[in-house]
Design a protein that fits this description.
Protein name: TMM70 protein
InterPro entries: TMEM70, TMEM70/TMEM186/TMEM223
Family: Belongs to the TMEM70 family.
Pfam family, one: TMEM70
Strand order of the largest sheet: 1-2-3-4
Radius of gyration: 23 Å
Keywords: Membrane, Transmembrane, Transmembrane helix
Oligomer: single chain
Helix content: 40-55%
Distance between the termini: 70 Å
């Protein structure tokens, strides 16, 4: 176990010293978006999980020291309910709210596919590959959803796309019959 950990840390160090960015993944395509709350989301989820684990380990000790175990059934139910909310409901709720937060988004021009990197329930990065035609925009604005990739909700901040055309293509705005960027340029040139 110990030798594996040391080699894995060396691998991380070697990767970070190389000239390429740690987010370069040629197999996914070019990086078109990077979420600025990735570390915050990871930190909040990690804190929530660690407090839940702490609660689970401390519960028997608290019950033993406080004598709650011999009190009435009502007091026990209230105590377990309160601890249960903080131990299980909070991390589950946090995961549901943040599971679609896109940390990074890659695009492959030649096949018109995107790879969205999100965090899964165990805080590991998860890659979701989808085609531009799989993107559906919700009919009504939703708080934690910018678009759906097939059936999975995704959350991005449009202002964080270095190239606005990448966002327009992702959302399908460049295919809209009402407004085309090229037509706007032609009108400007005519004036």
């Amino acid at each position: 176990g110990f030798i594996f950990q040391v080699t894995s840390f060396q691998g991380v160090a070697v990767r970070s010293l190389s000239t390429s960015s740690p987010h370069d993944h040629p197999e996914h395509g070019r990086l078109v978006y990077k979420g600025n709350l990735a570390k915050t989301v990871l930190g909040v989820k990690f804190f929530s999980y660690s407090t839940s684990i702490f609660n689970l380990f401390m519960m028997p000790y608290i019950m033993l020291k406080s004598g709650i175990g011999v009190e009435s059934l009502l007091v026990q139910a209230a105590f377990y309910g309160l601890i249960g909310v903080f131990t299980f409901v909070t991390p589950v709720t946090l995961h549901i709210l943040t599971k679609g937060y896109v940390i990074r988004l890659y695009y492959k021009d030649e096949v018109d596919t995107y790879t969205a990197i999100t965090y899964n329930a165990i805080l590991a990065e998860k890659a979701t590959v989808f085609h531009q035609k799989d993107v559906k925009i919700p009919d009504i604005t939703k708080m934690f959803t910018t678009f759906y990739a097939k059936t999975k909700s995704m959350l991005v901040n449009p202002t964080l796309f270095p190239n606005p055309q990448d966002y327009n293509h992702l959302m399908g705005y460049d295919k809209s019959s009402f407004f085309k960027f090229e037509e706007l340029e032609e009108v400007k040139e005519a004036d």
